[in-house]
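Contributing new complexes? Match this layout with nicotinamide-adenine-dinucleotide.
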Amino acid sequence: METKIKQLQQLIKKADKICFFTGAGISTESGIPDFRSQNGLYKQNISFADVISKRFYDRSPEKFWPLFKEIFYLKMLHQYAPNRGHQLIANLEKSKVIHVITQNIDGLHQEAGSTNVYEIHGTIKKAHCPSCGSQFDLAYMNKTALPACEACTHLLKPNVVLFGDEIHQFEQAAEAALQSDLFVVMGSSLEVTPINQIPLLVSKHTQIPMVMINKEVTQYDDVFDLVIHDSIGGVVSRL
Ligand code: NAD
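Output block (do not edit by hand):
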């Protein structure tokens, strides 16, 4: 492990432009459960892939909202704070060009101070009115069980990419990854498509070093030059 940490230190030191690719695993140490770990949400018998879908929202937004709020702990969201993983990435902006491609919707990278963040799956911090486009914040969403537009009373839609919705900024994110000189995945199972194609694009079209920091083995570990199976907090504290 010490050799791997030293290698990672060297790679970070040498790089001028680093692209971090993060998933739910970077926020578990802030107390937000991921989807696919041993105690992740997929193991808790919630058929949430059906719930957090465009189809379900379109059919019955009034059934969608209470379940959505429960799955994403909406009422508690303000209690979560960035952890050492988010902070390491944000601090590196002082000396390097940093891009963060995140699958997370929790906004913790921005709270830590990162400025170039691609939120591929949107954000849980806002919702909009599908009818008139007005935007509303988390406090507004939490005020009533069924958040509706102030102006036209239409039920709001969260600014999260639901299953069946189009993802955001894929091309810009892929471009940022391809233009970097170090690519680091932190806390992602790389199970979700099409976002999991970005590491494969980097591997195919560049020669840059690729690092994977994840507790568990992923299906694409073999495209990475350095693979560390450990907790992000543990790795960051040793760095
Ligand atoms: P995932 O749940 O599929 O995988 C998370 C991975 O992180 C797992 O392989 C796990 O072993 C690893 N992990 C967990 N804690 C870790 C830690 N402390 N250190 C190192 N590794 C750790 O997550 P994903 O790949 O991001 O895909 C899930 C989807 O769920 C994404 O689309 C994301 O939008 C959404 N999601 C987001 C949040 C959030 O915003 N915090 C939370 C849950 C799910």
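Reviewers usually confirm one structural detail per submission. For this one: DSSP finds ten helices and nine strands in the chain.
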